[in-house]
Write a structure and sequence with these properties.
By secondary structure, this protein is of the alpha/beta class. Helices cover 22% and strands 27% of the residues. It folds into 2 domains: 270 residues, Alpha-Beta Complex (Spore Coat Polysaccharide Biosynthesis Protein SpsA, Chain A); 106 residues, UDP N-Acetylglucosamine Acyltransferase, domain 1 (3 Solenoid).
């Protein structure tokens, strides 16, 4: 399992790879954040969308042929891709194609991860890639896919699965692998109730990141066989991978930090607590995810907004943000923002305090509000004097509360008309 390349794999392998990003799932564990948009379109980190990380990894890795498979409430995602990802040049064979569920192979929509790829086999064939890289669009991380592709080629693999070390508690929500000394996968259990720990560890398991490299011809054969199986659930983790490990070369690629060799940053922001925590992690002095690294930038649609502004400097009316990240277009007017992340065009009025909170774009926090440990959805107008995060019983009667006690506030919960959700 020790694979620490000294340099990036470039050009030939990455140019001959087609990346397919699965971005059609409902993401129900994020509650009302995905009631009007698909999970990969959920804002993250003050200015990005979750899908920007997978897309940026592709571009930075030299993979410039990308298909995005959409299905559930995709308008916000499609709009973002048109606004922020239209810079690739078709004349050079570069593209980001939208691949919505179209019932191309029958009367059903996408019914699983494997089925989503299967329904686009004709499109895969038309691009004639040597390799297909299958990605989820709902994880936050930086990864050089060229390194994983090189590992795949070096091992003569049919399938390579990206893997990360996760706690046994987290492993219940992942595909869990067992590997031999060469890194070959010898067992794969999808979301086991009792995950087996890794050798040498009592509390860690080897979890699938939902990142797969396939030789194209092999992928097509697998998907066609799976489509003929009436007992299949049409899923990579439940069906394709468990069958493949018994007869074919399936290897696990350990996702390591290129400098330290330790576990690299990777977050599955699949519920409100993990989403809230991952956003606030970015505020730290030296966060694991470095958004300021110019060698591996995260690309996105850049809204044209003025700089953030902090107004008034009087004893009882001082606009300030402490230990926080504040995006462009924000105005903190005689208010206090502490250990929070404000997306673009947020206004916080006089006397308000916002603490340990994630505030999405176009929110107005009224005068005298006290907000703590809250996620505020796009477009909310929080009435003056509103208190959230200080009385759990009162919050539970009005808002969605996570298992960890974080409140999610949406316009509907405040009795307001839902604006267009970006």
């Amino acid at each position: 399992m020790e694979f620490r390349p000294s340099q990036r794999f470039v050009s030939v392998i990455t140019r001959d790879t087609l990346a397919l990003i699965l971005a059609g799932g409902r993401g129900t564990r994020l509650g009302a954040l995905t009631s009007h948009r698909v999970k990969p379109a959920v804002p993250f980190g003050g200015k990005f969308r979750i899908i920007d990380f997978a897309l940026s990894n592709c571009i930075n890795s030299g993979i410039r042929r990308v298909g995005v498979l959409t299905q559930y409430k995709a308008h916000s995602l499609i709009r973002h891709l048109h606004q922020g990802w239209g810079f690739l040049r078709g004349e050079f064979g570069e593209f980001i194609e939208l691949l919505p569920a179209q019932q191309r192979t029958g009367p059903s929509w996408y019914s699983g991860t494997a089925d989503a790829i299967y329904q686009n086999i004709d499109i895969i064939r038309s691009h004639e890639p040597q390799f297909v890289l299958v990605l989820g669009g709902d994880h936050v991380y930086k990864m050089d896919y060229g390194t994983m592709l090189g590992y795949h080629v070096d091992n003569g693999a049919d399938i390579t699965v990206g893997c990360a070390q996760v706690s046994l508690e987290q492993a219940r929500g992942f595909g869990v692998m067992a590997v031999d000394d060469t890194g070959r996968v010898v067992r794969f259990d999808e979301k086991p109730e009792h995950p087996e720990p890794m050798p040498g560890s009592a509390d860690q398991a080897l979890g699938s990141m939902g990142i797969y490299v396939f030789n194209t011809d092999y992928l097509i054969d697998c998907l066609e066989q799976d489509a003929r199986n009436p007992n299949s659930s049409r899923d990579f983790g439940r069906d394709v991978l468990p069958r493949a490990i018994y007869s074919d070369a399936v290897y696990a690629f350990p996702f390591r930090d290129m400098e330290t060799g330790g576990q690299a940053y990777w977050r599955d922001v699949g519920n409100l607590d993990s989403y809230w925590a991952a956003n606030l992690e970015l505020i730290g002095v030296t966060p694991e995810l470095n958004l300021y690294n110019q060698d591996w930038p995260i690309w996105t649609y850049q809204e044209q907004a003025p700089p953030a502004k902090f107004v008034f400097d009087e004893k009882d009316r001082r606009g300030m943000a402490v230990d926080s990240m504040v995006a462009g277009g924000c105005i903190v007017s005689g208010a206090l923002v502490r250990h929070s992340l404000l997306f673009s065009n947020v206004v916080v009025d006089q006397g308000a305090t916002v603490e340990e909170s994630v505030v999405l774009p176009d929110v107005h926090v009224g005068a005298g509000c006290r907000i703590r440990r809250v996620i505020v959805e796009t477009g909310c107008r929080v009435p003056p004097g509103t208190v959230i995060g200080h009385d759990p019983q009162a919050d539970a009667s009005r808002f969605e509360i996570s298992a960890g006690g974080v409140a999610l506030v949406t316009p509907e919960m405040l009795g307001q008309d839902l604006p267009y959700v970006r």
